[in-house]
Write a structure and sequence with these properties.
Layout: E1 2-6, E2 23-27, E3 34-37, E4 42-46, H1 51-61, E5 65-66, H2 77-82, H3 90-93, E6 100-106, E7 112-113, H4 115-125, E8 136-143, E9 145-146, H5 164-174, E10 186-188, E11 219-227, H6 233-243, E12 252-258, H7 262-265, E13 281-289, H8 294-311, H9 342-353, H10 357-367, H11 382-405
Parallel strand pairs: 1-2
Antiparallel strand pairs: 3-4, 4-8, 5-9, 6-7, 6-8, 10-12, 11-13, 12-13
Helix pairs in contact: 6-8
The structure holds flavin-adenine dinucleotide (FAD) and 2-acetamido-2-deoxy-beta-D-glucopyranose (2 copies).
The site of flavin-adenine dinucleotide (FAD) has 32 residues, from strand 1, helix 2 and strand 8.
Pathway: Alkaloid biosynthesis; nicotine biosynthesis
GO biological process, one term: alkaloid metabolic process
Keywords: Alkaloid metabolism, FAD, Flavoprotein, Glycoprotein, Signal
């Protein structure tokens, strides 16, 4: 049986708890101890914790330390850190995975390793190379970052009539160049559609961060894109046209996240996450719906696929890059029932990891040759394929010989 490791279950394609083949879920929900060391400015976080629990435990001990991870508190550190993990501090401090300094991991042989015993190759791979691939992470050691006691947050709404197109157009030139203390992202959605933020109250007691239940749960499909050149106004107007279609009514949102700052300084090969200097911003495309049924789902999914095709000329090419934590099985999948070749995996792998893909394959082949940890988008082991091919050849030779003998 396959193993599916589940952190907080936020995988966009449900890979931590859905599979076509028989599988066992290893759910980490009980591994949630978080030890914050204010003097060392570090913390050990067990892999079943959510980022909300982590933020809460840090806030309990210090008002001037934080951690640069995601926005929604119910996201799990298990999957989130394994794929990079970003939030409003990424221009100042990079990704969550950029700030991991040690880890405890169970490898495919059942050994428990730390950074020293796993070695730098494997430690590199688990900081962004994707979950359920190199082993089961039990806990992360992270470096906390300095934050001011008071931050300013503001929201500005603009409609098309208020020249929103010009604003978005201009934003592309300035947002990636702002001082790293300033993070201004754009959420584009149809007027009065119901997708403001994550639904969590912004005032009141901090313990809302401890809730593992998402405020609202709806059906959705998402995709990601990276932008190197500002999109011209005409191109933006073409995007808005999709927003007026029926499928966008129940709600869609396009989130533009500025890069630059610290993201430009970290080398594209420092960790497996490769989207660094040159990226102006990342887009997340989302469409939501409430009604059950295949037909409704198909309609909304095909809407977002059409939008994605429309975007092609305006975004990164060769490869058309994507963010693994916005998991999208449309961009390519492994053969989950059998052997996945290097070439087959490279189709999606190069989009998530660019030139880091080969090093990830190398590490995987070394640490998990039999491909024990696997899913639809896990790095393949070259050896498991070779072994299988060799076995098949042996098998067919044996059969032919038996045939000849008979
Ligand atoms: C509402 C919502 C908001 C989000 N906001 C952000 C955001 O602000 N920034 C951002 O970067 N991303 C965001 N994401 C995406 C999020 O980072 C990914 O979905 C992430 O992988 C979720 O981690 P998880 O542990 O909750 O998910 P899971 O579904 O449990 O895990 C995801 C993958 O990692 C594997 N995995 C989990 N734990 C481990 C472990 N301990 N060891 C090995 N493999 C493991 C799983 O098998 C699966 O393949 C958001 C997602 C949602 C649903
Ligand atoms: C929109 O832009 C036009 C042309 O630049 C300008 O005349 C108009 O005042 C702007 N409208 C608003 C609401 O800012
Ligand atoms: C949006 O909602 C407001 C307040 O409910 C309403 O006055 C306005 O007409 C709505 N706009 C659209 C385009 O539906």
């Amino acid at each position: 049986m396959h193993i599916r490791v589940r952190g907080a279950g936020h995988d966009y394609e449900g890979l931590s708890y859905v599979s076509e083949v028989p599988f066992v879920i290893v759910d980490l929900i009980n591994l949630r101890t978080i030890n914050v060391d204010v003097n060392d400015k570090s913390a050990w976080v067990e892999a079943g914790s959510t980022i909300g629990e982590l933020y809460y435990r840090i806030a309990e001990k210090s008002k001037t330390l934080g951690f640069p991870a995601g926005v929604c508190p119910t996201v799990g550190v298990g999957g989130h850190f394994s794929g990079g993990g970003y939030g409003v501090m990424l221009r100042k401090y990079g990704l969550a995975a950029d700030n991991i300094v040690d880890a405890r991991l169970i490898d495919a042989n059942g050994r428990i390793l730390d950074r020293a015993s796993m070695g730098e190759d494997l430690f590199w791979a688990i900081r962004g190379g994707g979950g359920n691939t190199f082993g089961l992470v039990l806990a992360w050691k992270i470096k906390l970052v300095d934050v001011p006691e008071i931050v300013t947050v503001f929201t500005l709404d603009k409609t098309l009539e208020q020249n929103a197109t010009k604003l978005v157009h201009k934003w592309q030139y300035v947002a990636p160049r702002f001082h790293e203390d300033l993070f201004i992202r754009i959420l584009v959605s149809r007027l009065n559609s119901s997708n403001q933020g994550d639904g969590f109250p912004t005032d009141g007691p901090l313990d809302v961060l401890l809730s593992r239940v998402q405020f609202s749960t709806r059906y959705f499909k998402a995709k990601s894109d990276y932008v190197y050149q500002p999109i011209p106004e005409g191109g933006l107007e073409g995007i808005w046209r999709f927003f007026f279609e029926d499928e966008a009514q129940s709600s869609q949102v396009m989130i533009l996240n500025p890069y630059g700052g610290r993201m430009d300084e970290i080398s594209a090969s420092a960790i497996p996450f490769p989207h660094r200097a040159g990226n102006l911003y990342k887009i997340q495309h989302l469409v939501y719906w409430d009604e059950e049924g295949e037909e409704v789902a198909e309609r909304h999914i095909s809407w977002i696929r059409r939008l994605y095709s429309y975007m092609a000329p305006f975004v990164s090419k060769l490869p058309r890059a994507a963010y693994i934590n916005y998991r999208d099985l449309d961009i390519g999948v492994n053969n989950i029932k059998g052997y996945t070749s290097y070439v087959q995996a490279k189709v999606w792998g190069i989009k998530y990891f660019k030139n880091n893909f080969d090093r990830l394959v190398h590490v995987k082949t070394k640490v998990d040759p039999s491909n024990f940890f696997r899913n639809e988008q896990s790095i393949p082991s070259l050896l498991s394929g070779r072994t299988k091919v060799i076995n098949e050849v042996h098998h067919s030779i044996k059969n032919n010989m038996m045939h000849a003998i008979i």
